[in-house]
Amino acid sequence: MRPITTQTLFSLQFSGDPQFSPDGQSIVYVKTTINQEENKYQSQICKYDRKTGRDIPFTQGLAQDKLPKFSQDGSYLAFVSTRSGTPQLFVMLTDGGEPKQLTFFKKGVKSYSWMPNNQLVVAARKDDANEKSDVRVVNTLRYRGNGYGFYGDEPIHLWLVQVDGSGPQQITDGNFDETDPTVSPDGKKIAFVSWREENQVEVTPSLYTVDLDTGLIDLTYQGKGSVSHPVYSPNGKWIAFFGHEHGEDSGYNTELWVVSTGSGEARSLSRSLDRPVGNQVGTDARYETAEVSPIWDMDSQKIYFTATHEGDVYVYSVTLDEKIQKETPGDTQVVTSFSYHSGVIAYAKETPASPAELYLQQNKEIQQITYHNTPLFKSLTVSVPERTKFQARDGLEINGWLLKPPGFSSDQRYPLVLEIHGGPHSSYGNTFLHEFQVLANSGYIVLYTNPRGSHGYGEAFVRGSIGDWGGKDYEDLIDAVDAVARLPYVDRNNLFVTGGSYGGYMTNWMVAHTHIFKAAVTQRSICNLHSMIGTSDIGFWFNVKELDGADIWEDEEFILSRSPIRYANRVQTPVKIIHSEEDFRCPMEQAEQWFTALKRLGVETELVRFPNENHDLSRNGQPEHRVERLDHIVGWFNQYLGNKE
Ligand SMILES: CSCC[C@H](NC=O)C(=O)N[C@@H](C)C(=O)N[C@@H](CO)C(=O)O
């Protein structure tokens, strides 16, 4: 058996986005691998035949092929591929043959949907005719996005394209973005999400419908918060979508909604679940290739969707009269994507011991159908985490996990690393976490928890950090460390801490408020909430919402009082700062400020700058950079590990 190391990353495989063929006999899905020589990811569409059990590659997989969708008669398969540079729409016959490129948009395709008559509707940004100079003239607050870059002047619109390659024909216009098209069963209307608000600070999308005969656009549902992933019911009477009514605020549950295409009546079907739809469980061992929309049963009475529950993600179903049922059994799973066909669910499932593999479920029987990671994992010392619960000082129950080194013995004492997630509304859960396995395989116990503010424990819990960054959630984390440090096998003289983004904020906050840690690694972190308002791609609304409305002009003192930079002169813990130079979410200036402050104050510190990487370095950065990042984390802790009890 071999330990899991930083280099193990190159051998991981990620499967997801299963899609049933219309006859239900085969399933296509996306498999992503890492080409170490070329330092890049390769995503390939594979096809699993349910009769023969044969699993074959369907596309080349030299670039990134993703979002496969069968045409309604099953004769074509469309997908988005970067094989010509940017993500463009391709189509091929399901019998095989060469894929044909259907779109040539300069900035690529965002989303698409099949029409009944073998046409497709595509959401794509119009080519910018005014792009004469490389100078950027900015007139809006939303002009760049982490991982995307600068948006340019032209908005995203809907276009019709034909499988024979003719088109694209533009079907919506105006100075606003339009995405997520869904086509009515008769092919006459397209519903889509659009941001048609004048106010640039808080823009909430709504649902619109365009009539393809007349070109007229109707408002179908007036959004009051988030609206995404609309899908027509097979009888055309409803559109299901994901949304909430709380403006631009990620600290609320996004729910499954329906709107009647006749009366316009809209309601949430999943409110009683008190859980957010979709997957809110983070990991560094996933390569996102799917868009998981609600899926209607053929009778138009039931909808399938995923939701996050206490560190797990399950498939649920809900009827139009709001009867909710958990569909995937078991309690240790993170379902990242799924498809449904006549009583059968195909889903991609991560567990603490493996990146996602595909499963089929029929009549409560579960069959694993892919084993891409199995040979590798049979030869590795994988540690399986134990679920734990802690009581915070005010009595609130906090969930967590302890990942022990392989070969753990309770007669020994082990150093401990506290890992802190970001968001702050993201969560940890029952998924495979490469970084944590590397630490456990290096001899550390890893403690990870979901303090208040995390998703998956109800809306009251997720709102527990609003207006209180560094407050009660900090206490939850300290209370968890206190409880674990009392265990006989934990070496309380060797406690370490790390986290990214909000987790990096909390790491900075911790070293400025306690001296219990031997060393810290702060990643893509925040130290100055005041400057972040103006420098982050989302700072002007996100920071204000997260601090419960606090803004620069009225509440400067409060904002600075919650900024780690104010307390930098209390830090004694050696801190390594890891940051990506193209991070638009928590910009590089945050790391620069923290480094300058600590250095001036004589704290042991080191700044590690990753060029050509953004906020998502740990999840989809260049593979070699990801390994180097992990080496920096383990190396820093090892450097300060000493004086074992
Ligand atoms: C656009 S939704 C709200 C912000 C977003 N929340 C998602 O988690 C976000 O980017 N927050 C960052 C400050 C953050 O902490 N991100 C975490 C979780 O994704 C990270 O690990 O990068």
CATH superfamily of the domain at 388-640: Alpha/Beta hydrolase fold, catalytic domain
Major β-sheet strand ordering: 33-34-36-35-37-38-39-40
Structural class: alpha+beta
Form type = globular
The portion of residues forming beta strands comes to: 35-45%
Euclidean distance between termini CA atoms: 29 Å
- Tally of contiguous helical segments: 11
CATH fold call of the domain at 388-640: Rossmann fold
By CATH, the architecture of the domain at 388-640 is named 3-Layer(aba) Sandwich
What is the total tally of β strands?
40
Protein name: Acyl-peptide hydrolase
Pfam families: PD40 (PF07676), Peptidase_S9 (PF00326)
Keywords: Acetylation, Hydrolase, Protease, Serine protease
Organism: Fodinisporobacter ferrooxydans
Structure, explained:
The protein has 645 residues and is an alpha+beta fold. It has a domain at 388-640: Alpha/Beta hydrolase fold, catalytic domain (Rossmann fold). Helices cover 16% and strands 35% of the residues. An eight-stranded mixed sheet has the order 33-34-36-35-37-38-39-40, sandwiched between helices. The longest helix has 18 residues, at 623-640. The model has no long low-confidence stretch (mean pLDDT 96). It binds ligand LLCC2GWJ. Ligand LLCC2GWJ binds next to loops. This is Acyl-peptide hydrolase. Keywords: Acetylation, Hydrolase, Protease, Serine protease. It comes from Fodinisporobacter ferrooxydans.
